[in-house]
Design a protein that fits this description.
By secondary structure, the chain is of the alpha/beta class. The protein is globular. The chain folds into two domains: about 5-100, Elongation Factor Tu (Ef-tu), domain 3 (Beta Barrel), CATH 2.40.30.10; about 115-270, Rossmann fold (3-Layer(aba) Sandwich). The longest helix is centred in the middle third of the chain and has 14 residues, at about 120-135. α2 (about 120-135) runs parallel beside α3 (about 155-160). It has six helices and 15 strands. The two termini are about 35 Å apart.
Length: about 270
């Protein structure tokens, strides 16, 4: 387990990605490493308003000099995310990271991965895609959104997929880019046409994850899900992110997840 640290971070850059989403590039003098699928709890501004930090999946983590640069993708939905959109470049915040359990990227030799991202669920899959590309591990990336404007970092996704000769599959609910319909339908069409995957990794809205779980069970496909549950603390104290496990236990997403194998979750995920 990689030890978490509470770090002072500086906003080095902010990039608008869509009408609702933006990317934050944060730098810190503290060296740290992380696995795709792990997350951080970020204070949204200096002081205590808003009081609670917000959880964000890590989209990238890498060394910069003696310190670290990390990227977060943020969707503006309320006061906290709005404060991050308004933060001046050079502004400082506090980040507790890395937290939780990430994806297991190991596959049988020659096995291919399917990465499935819905909307703002892209960050942990982008992190995984670039890690896999660097290792030469083959994968396909399925990226879905409501409209073309909400498909995030498509060129960067294409570079990662292209590095290993994979396919980037895009889908939008309204058909404005890529295939029309939800991204799980696009994956089902590839599977029906003979695509073979050793494992699937996914993050996105709960209905997407539930639909994907049902498909994976019918195919006998191993599936890892990064859950998007409300979190107030990120360290298992507040119990705001508890989910039901397949063994009847109630487990905290922030500590025992946010990545779970589908087989570890209660039946509501596939019923």
């Amino acid at each position: 387990m990689i030890a978490r640290r509470d770090m002072r971070v500086r906003l080095a850059a902010r990039r608008e990605l869509s009408p609702s989403c933006f990317l934050l590039e944060l730098v810190t003098d503290t060296p740290f490493e992380a696995q795709p699928g792990q997350f951080g709890m970020l204070a949204c501004r200096a002081g205590r308003d808003p009081f609670l930090r917000r959880p964000f999946s890590l989209a990238a983590v890498g060394a910069r000099g003696e310190g670290t640069v990390c990227e977060l993708l943020v969707k503006e939905v309320g006061r906290g995310s709005r404060a991050l959109r308004e933060l001046a470049v050079g502004g400082e915040l506090q980040l507790l990271a890395p937290l939780g359990r990430g994806f297991d990227l190991a596959t049988p030799e020659g096995g291919r991965l399917a990465l499935v991202a819905g909307g703002i669920g892209l960050p942990p899959l982008l992190f995984a895609a670039e890690r896999l590309a660097a290792a030469g591990q083959p994968f396909d990336l399925f990226l879905g959104a409501a409209t073309a404007a909400e498909l995030l970092l498509v060129e960067r996704c294409q570079r990662a997929v292209g590095a290993v000769g994979g396919e980037l599959v895009l889908a939008t609910d309204d058909g404005s880019r890529g295939e029309r319909g939800v991204i799980t339908e696009a994956l089902a069409r590839r599977w029906a046409s003979g695509a073979a995957y050793a494992t699937a990794l996914a993050c996105g809205p709960t209905p997407m994850l539930a639909a994907l779980t049902q498909l994976a069970r019918s195919w006998g496909l191993e599936l890892q899900l990064s859950l998007e549950e409300p979190m107030a603390c990120g360290v298992g104290v507040c119990l705001g992110c508890v989910v039901d496990g397949a063994d009847g236990r109630r487990v905290t997403t922030c500590k025992e997840g946010p990545v779970f194998r589908a087989s570890e979750l209660a039946a509501r995920w596939w019923q």
